[in-house]
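PROTEIN–LIGAND DATA SHEET

This sheet pairs a single protein chain with one bound small molecule, adenosine-5'-diphosphate, given as SMILES. Inputs appear in the order they were entered. The predicted three-dimensional arrangement of chain and ligand is reported afterwards as a token string under its own label.
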Amino acid sequence: MATIAVYSMKGGVGKTSLAVNLAWAAAALSKRRTLLWDLDGQAAASFILADGRKAGDEARAVIEKDLAPERLIVKTHIPLLDLLPADASLHQLDALFSELDRKKRILRLTEGLQRSYDHIILDCPPGLGSTSEQVMRGAALILMPMIPSTLSQRAFAEVRDHLTRHHKGGPPIIPVFSMVDRRRLAHRKAMAEAPDCPVIPMASAVEQMADRHAALGEYAPKSPAAIAVATLWRAIEERLAR
Ligand SMILES: Nc1ncnc2c1ncn2[C@@H]1O[C@H](COP(=O)(O)OP(=O)(O)O)[C@@H](O)[C@H]1O
Ligand SMILES: [Mg+2]
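PREDICTION REPORTED AS:
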């Protein structure tokens, strides 16, 4: 079982879209038993995959009070893909983890699920605090989406250095260019400077995920963005196999 986190200090960079699409790729393309764990109180991934869940405070109870995650996990319409949904009780997740003083809480919870799943994908809230510390201890790989620019590359390097300094031997942190528009000079320049960085193109098809309640691969599998996600997923699998 491998835990893969989609994390960034910033909001609105494509974390949730990428997390849902990678979870779909793991389940639908690789036929792996996959759990998407929505850690963001905004519950966007939960909305995409399981519309209509009532607001509650159980997501927090899983972390805080040993409510068994299995009690909250739901199947999605995608075979082999389950969801551990978020709710508004996760809005103060950083504060919760600080108070909790159990530094490996995410790791322990995912270990408890390892017999049921081949992959656990974490959709993280934005921020750099005790949640990202938990993720550094709990994930085998961290993907950090960023919209290409000189400033976001600087910010990426800073966050990566900060995290790796505090977590020697922590997981690799892999940048992913997100919402890429090749017509834009800044995007082309950033891509030229980091030619090995995976690229997810800007595509209106991605924006439709929340209205369609579906992963991109379900309704536009041949779109360039879906192909980019599938290619990234294969690269992740290869990296995990090493
Ligand atoms: N590759 C993309 N192309 C076009 N729109 C995108 C893409 N990725 C994300 N978006 C849109 O950008 C917004 C923020 O994306 P989201 O995945 O929710 O980011 P985050 O989880 O980092 O806040 C959403 O409206 C989403 O539909
Ligand atoms: Mg999100």
